Amino acid sequence: MSQRDSKDIKSDYRMFTTKKKVIFYFFLVALIIFFIFNWLFYKVYSSNIEQVVFTESKNGVSKTMEYVDMILDSMEYTADIAQNNIQIQNKLEFGDRNEGSDYFVDRDIINILQSIVTNSVNRAASVDLFLDKNRKLYTSDYGVYSNLPPDIVDYYISLKENENRFTLTDGYRKSLNFILDRNYEQITMIRPLYELSTGKKSGLLAVNFDKYYIKNIIKGKADYNNIILDRNNSTIISAFAENIVYTEEQIDEIKSLVVGERGEKLCWIGGEKYILVYDSSKYSGWKFVTFVPAISSMQHMSKLRDSIFILFLIMNVVTAMALIFLLSRKVYSKLNRLIASMKEVEKGNLNVSIVHSDTDEFGFMYSSFNDMVEKIRNLFEELYTQKLLQKEAQLKLLQAKINPHFIYNIFDNMNWLIQLERYDELEILVDSVSTYFKRSLNAGKDFISVADTLEQLESYVQIQKIRFKNRFECIFDFDEEIIDMIIPNFILQPLLENAICHGVEPKTEKCLIQVKGIKIKERVFFTIEDDGAGISADTLKKISDFLANDKTDEDNYFALANINKRIKLYYGEEYGLTIRSTEGVGTKVTVIIPFEFN
């Protein structure tokens, strides 16, 4: 496998891993949102369930109360029938008349009572009639009782004297201990009987109704528990859910919570949370109480909630996967576009540009990519230009090095020194020429140390001093800090050459050239200053404009332009060279570069 194939495989692996991560994070966010949503749904739904249970319980209490009131109303209607019966009225007014006729009258009254029971709307269990005049008790199921015990008579008289329209009780049967076979689980409506002619209370009517029928009515739904309390908060009837037993203490605890005519509340009974609802009947004064465990009351609705939860889960998962697929497809289509462009750059195509109108993060990446490619392209162009300038400089320098006139002068000077037998100076000249060409060639390298540059300049000055017969002096002054610093080759020698050729040569008197290298903060300043002929103002302006416009195609100023351009390419636009000159006074050229050793 080639290195390129291995690289592609690794790239594909990284992309696959990144894609999986993106999908994972998308899914994780969707999952978190899903659970937050469903938690809120659960809280809201649970609260709604409680309200629904409260509403159902109130409706159940209301309907139960309505049914029971109908039964009680039918019992009162049964009593009204007895109240208005003529034979019963006669008995109320006149009592017993004679033994023979009374027997038949009593039998007729028993038949009337039995007929009332048979025809009662809600099937009264029995009807009892007590008369003051004869102190007899007439029953629809066990006939006539005379010679009642005094305590029974007193009991009926006390009931008759009750000021209420009627009295409801479940203790009536217990007082009739002489009637052995009658059911004890009964509710009795007791009301006085009035003589229609006088309005006087002369008897008592008791309509008995088995609790069984009412218990079936209040039994209601599973898990619902119902209690009917009388005006004194005593239990009349109770119906609890199957397999549920409540202790007397728990029942008393429930009763203590029933305050006022009606109410609804969440309460704790025996360590368990209950929903409690109660209401009072205006007809009977009874309180109808319903209480149901909060957990069990919500179970059937919890099934609906769970079904909705599962439905939402499926919908959310499907939606999340669809969104993840669409988002990842959209994201990776944009990424692939960027990757394809990057591969083009990798192949060497620097004319790639991503045309887009995106304003999101991808738009930023596309724009950054375009800027990066443009910068790379510009760097390549600058590097190419730099190489061309360098080659051109080397050619120019080579031409200068092998300039016939320059070489002729060297040999002419050598010949002149030989003829004058000035062998010491000849030796110096030969040595200087050798050193100059050695440092100038610099083994073909583009950069040279300041120390070698200084040696190159000193050799060049020595050659030119012999040529110009010591018409100038040259002083070198370099800071020790910069001696080992590396700088581009041929940025000082051409400037020194200009100082000699254009500053010293036109003057007849002896000149002074000062070459300095000074470090100031993080910059190095190289100056070549002479007191030679100087430059006219027009020519200086022309040179300054030429350098400012970055031109390099003018032979007259080629050396200056080339040095300035190379410095800017190497170090940046804030560096380069400056020229100050006054005609007839001298010229100062300054080269500014950063202080660095690489």
How is this structure best summarized?
The protein has 598 residues and is α+β, with helices and mostly antiparallel strands. The protein has 15 helices and 18 strands. Helix 11 (423-441) packs across helix 12 (450-467).
Number of helices: 15
Which regions are unreliable across 5 or more consecutive residues at pLDDT < 50?
none
The structural class is alpha+beta
Give the termini separation.
39 Å
Can you name the CATH architecture of the domain at 403-594?
2-Layer Sandwich
Overall number of strands? 18
- Portion in helices: 55-70%
Integer average pLDDT: 80
Largest sheet: 6 strands, antiparallel
CATH class category label of the domain at 403-594: Alpha Beta
Major sheet strand order: 3-2-1-6-5-4
Q: What is the fold named in CATH at topology level of the domain at 403-594?
A: Heat Shock Protein 90
Fourth-tier CATH superfamily name of the domain at 403-594? Histidine kinase-like ATPase, C-terminal domain
- Rg to the nearest angstrom? 62 Å
Share of β-strand residues: 15-25%
Morphology call: rod-shaped
Write a structural description.
It is a single chain. The protein is of the alpha+beta class and 598 residues long. Among the domains are: 84-213, Beta-Lactamase; 403-594, Heat Shock Protein 90. The protein has 15 helices and 18 strands. The chain has helices spanning 3-83, 86-94, 99-119, 150-160, 172-175, 211-219, 248-257, 294-346, 361-401, 404-419, 423-441, 450-467, 493-504, 537-548, 558-571; strands spanning 126-131, 136-139, 143-145, 167-169, 186-194, 201-210, 225-229, 235-239, 263-269, 272-280, 287-293, 447-449, 472-478, 486-488, 511-520, 523-530, 576-582, 586-594. A 6-stranded antiparallel β-sheet has the order 3-2-1-6-5-4, with helices on both faces. The protein has a 5-stranded antiparallel β-sheet with strand order 8-7-11-10-9, with helices on both faces. A hairpin with a 2-residue loop joins β9 (263-269) and β10. α10 (404-419) runs antiparallel to α11 (423-441) and α12 packs parallel to α13. The longest helix is centred in the first third of the chain and has 81 residues, at 3-83. The chain is rod-shaped, with a radius of gyration of 62 Å. The model has no long low-confidence stretch (mean pLDDT 80).
